Amino acid sequence: MPKMKTRRAAAKRFSKTGTGKIKRNHAFMNHMLEHKPKSAKRKLRKSTTMAKGDVKRTERLIPYK
């Protein structure tokens, strides 16, 4: 069976932690930032772990990462 190919778009967006969880960045930080509260922008800056329901689908996109 041939090797699976990594989806390059997903590889640029997601990474794995040491324990195998998937890290992602928050959305809504690209434009129209003057309308968003400072506290909301501060919270969106940090990365977070992927939701449990999306992990299985995302792991197929980045099999070797």
From TrEMBL:
BP-aspect Gene Ontology terms: translation
Region called Disordered, residue ranges: 1-21, 36-65
Record's keyword annotation contains Mitochondrion: no
Gene Ontology MF terms in the entry: structural constituent of ribosome
One Pfam family named in its UniProt record: Ribosomal_L35p
Composition-biased stretches (Basic and acidic residues): 53-65
GO cellular component terms, semicolon-separated: cytosolic large ribosomal subunit
Keyword field contains Ribonucleoprotein: yes
Domain of life: Bacteria
Keywords: Ribonucleoprotein, Ribosomal protein
Record family assignment: Belongs to the bacterial ribosomal protein bL35 family.
Protein name stated in the entry: Large ribosomal subunit protein bL35
Organism: Desmospora activa DSM 45169
